[in-house]
Design brief:
5-stranded antiparallel β-sheet; Nuclear Transport Factor 2, Chain: A; 5 strands; 2 helices; 31% helix; alpha+beta
């Protein structure tokens, strides 16, 4: 019973920190409609062309969000305009966003 409570608490904590990170930009990357978005594969290609190694990513709340390894070998989070592939913000491994 004690292990179940501990595991449930740990899962809730991890879930909450993941949600906070997904909302870290705090604004959409574009106001354009979804029909104008590039495909996820096209966005990934644009990020990779800029020298990043993509670990995971997707499109959330009008923003492409990618977890990458940057050119210096450090973990980073990038926010990408889903209509153009332009990086609108990026962050370091601590989750701080650099606009």
């Amino acid at each position: 019973m004690r292990k179940t409570i501990i595991l449930a608490s740990l899962a809730a904590f991890i879930g909450a920190t993941g949600l906070a990170r997904a909302e870290s930009l705090g604004r959409p990357c574009t106001a354009k409609p979804v029909k104008e978005y590039l495909t996820l594969d096209a966005l990934k290609a644009k990020v990779a062309d800029k020298g990043y190694q993509i670990r995971s990513g997707g499109i959330k709340k009008a923003c492409g969000e990618f977890y990458v390894i940057d050119k210096a070998g450090k973990k980073a989070e990038l926010f990408v305009d889903p209509t153009s592939g332009v990086i609108v913000a990026g962050g370091d491994s601590a989750g701080k966003v650099n606009n």
